[in-house]
Amino acid sequence: MRILHVEGGRHLYGGAFQVLHLLRGLAARGHQSTLACPRGCALAKAAAPVAEVHELTMRGDLDLAMVARLSRLIRAVQPDLVHLHSRIGADVMGGLAAWRCGVPVVHTRRVDNPERPWVVALKYRLYDRVVAISEGIGKVLLEEGVPVAKLRVVRSAVDLETYQQPCADRLLRAVLAAPRLGSPEPLLIGVVAQLIERKGHADLITALPPLVARYRGLRVLCFGQGPLAARLQEQIDQANLTGRVRLVGFRDDLAQLLPCLDLLVHPARMEGLGVALLQAAAAGVPIVATRVGGIPEAVRDGENGYLVPAGAVGALREAIDRLLSDPARRRAFGAAGQALMAREFSIDAMVEGNLAVYRELLDPARRPG
């Protein structure tokens, strides 16, 4: 089988990392993949060993010329199908290009934010199958009017072995800007998310002052970048949390740092599933998160973490406090999270799930009745 994949993201995290897992899994199973991605993106280099990579100009949602560029590539590659992995213009322009060329097309939806009814009515006609990465996203799509016959759910995956390693103390000291980890021994909370409104960083910062007063060693590390960096730093300073909360930017060594955390907090207002949740669980880190989107599929309340309502600062603070004060429960939740990832979020399951969608689309005899 030959598949043309289109990914519009420029950074190798979240959805782009899922594409890389899929490309590697398809190559291992003998399938041929071609990847179209933005010029200079991090995924291009990482995918080169397992896919034929074409770096294209991709200017976003209004880049109408992308239709022509992708159409030329489709005609040159002659794939059995096209798989669109992101928005940023790749979804609509890629769908139009595949339609022009008469090639079946699959679109993966990774976010749960609703779209306008007229957008749904027009856009999803372009796709033969729509893959949701969580049951939560699937529910949103059905409510928006996407036909159930088109919809499939294939959960995102995590590479368990990558995150099941010891804490890298040297790296941790550098991130904390501390030459040594002294007394009191730090309690480390991590947040792994873009610095954007819907990730809820402001709610966590609001919840923190009573916690840092109670736990002298508490430190919060916010991994990620985004347009809210300056505003969040201002909030941190005004709350007298400077030195206790650090915006450390994007890191490509999370696999070595996540095992150092005592707790991951994900206070998102909206979330399709949350790859960072899968990574933290694989690293044996307990989680406090919000009960939105697909998060309850990755964080089982009372099993590998606690779930609270989005925006509920008091409930968020209480859940964090419960775990910070109970090391035994943190260890139990961490072990349960690793077991959950192995059971339901393996890379093999994700690759086979996508292959099942491809096969039923190309072979009518495989389609469900």
From TrEMBL:
Organism of provenance: Thiocapsa imhoffii
Lineage: Bacteria, Pseudomonadati, Pseudomonadota, Gammaproteobacteria, Chromatiales
InterPro entries, per the entry: Glyco_trans_1, Glyco_trans_4-like_N
Keyword field contains Amino-acid biosynthesis: no
GO MF annotations in UniProt: glycosyltransferase activity
Gene3D superfamilies registered for this protein in UniProt: Glycogen Phosphorylase B
Pfam families: Glyco_transf_4, Glycos_transf_1
Domain Glycosyltransferase subfamily 4-like N-terminal: 14-161
Domain Glycosyl transferase family residue range list: 185-338
GO biological process: carbohydrate derivative metabolic process
Keywords: Glycosyltransferase, Transferase
Protein name per its UniProtKB record: Glycosyl transferase
Domain of life: Bacteria
